[in-house]
């Protein structure tokens, strides 16, 4: 029973930490352009001709 008294606050703290990290990344604009990175694979890079 003493183990649960220790593990439950730790689990709640880690969940709160993850939620804070998620909101921090939203505030920093991490999820603004989801389609741009997915479509970037289709853009061909210009390769320099080899001599």
Describe how the helices and strands are arranged:
Layout: H1 2-27, H2 34-39
What does this structure look like?
The protein is mostly helical and 51 residues long. The protein has a domain at 1-25. It has 2 helices and no strands.
How would you concisely characterize the structure shown here?
The protein is an all-alpha fold and 51 residues long. The protein has helices at residues 2-27, 34-39. The relative contact order is 0.07.
Main attributes?
51 residues; mainly alpha; 2 helices; 63% helix; elongated
Coarse structural class? mainly alpha
Query: Secondary-structure element sequence?
Result: HH
What is the strand content?
under 5%
Number of strands: 0
Ranges where pLDDT stays below 50 over 5 or more residues in a row are: none
Mean pLDDT: 87
Label the overall shape. Answer: elongated
Percent range of helical residues: 55-70%
